Amino acid sequence: MLAQQIGQLIKSQRLAVHLTQADLAQRAAVSRTTLSRLESGKAPNVQADVLDRLLASLQIQPRIESSASPSQARLQARQEQNARLQQQREHHLRLMLTLLSEPAGAPTRIERARAMVDLWRRNRTCSEYFIERWQTLLDLPVPQLVQAMLDLGEWEDALFQNTPWSWAWNSNP
């Protein structure tokens, strides 16, 4: 793919300076056949020194830009994702406080979350890992459930994205 892009660049620059393939090949000390194959995209394996000579003959100074630095769009997407994850954590924290502060309503809320997990299982809409993990958490007594949800470990973000509590963010049970 890179050779094709360089071949197109060489061809467009060669035509811009009004050189024939034979003229450029002679200047760069490469065969006209190699140049022709490169320009047509049929030379996937071209030696670096051949490319260097062709580019130098056309006074092209290639510049390789590092893809290691993320683009502005990627940075923004990453910030938006982090904001969504933070919002999920806050939703779950408020839910945990509600479960502890309103013990009479906790069983209803937990049953509704269990129904969501059962729906995931029936419809196979969620990974078995998440189904089993949430089922295990929902089987705990409320204080242990809250404690476990405070420290879900390395899977916290994933579990909060696949949460059986999402109904609670927009409604009252």
Which structural category do the helix and sheet elements fall into?
mainly alpha
Task: Compute the number of strand runs.
Answer: 0
The DSSP helix count reads: 9
Major sheet size, sense and barrel closure: none
Q: Cα distance, first to last residue?
A: 57 Å
Order of helices and strands: HHHHHHHHH
What is the average per-residue confidence, as pLDDT, rounded to a whole number? 87
Low-confidence stretches: none
User: What's the alpha carbon Rg, rounded to whole Å?
Assistant: 30 Å
Domains (count) = 2
SS strand fraction: under 5%
Shape: rod-shaped
Residues in helix, %: 55-70%
Description:
This protein is 66% helix and 0% strand. The mean pLDDT is 87. With 173 residues, it is an all-alpha fold. The protein is built from nine helices and no strands. Helix 1 crosses helix 3, helix 2 crosses helix 3 (32-39) and helix 2 (21-28) crosses helix 4 (48-57).
Short description:
The protein is 66% helix and 0% strand.
Task: Tag the structure with descriptive keywords.
single chain, rod-shaped, mainly alpha, 2 domains, 173 residues, 434 Repressor (Amino-terminal Domain)
Strand and helix layout:
Layout: H1 2-16, H2 21-28, H3 32-39, H4 48-57, H5 72-101, H6 106-123, H7 128-138, H8 142-150, H9 156-161
Helix pairs in contact: 1-3, 2-3, 2-4, 5-8, 6-7
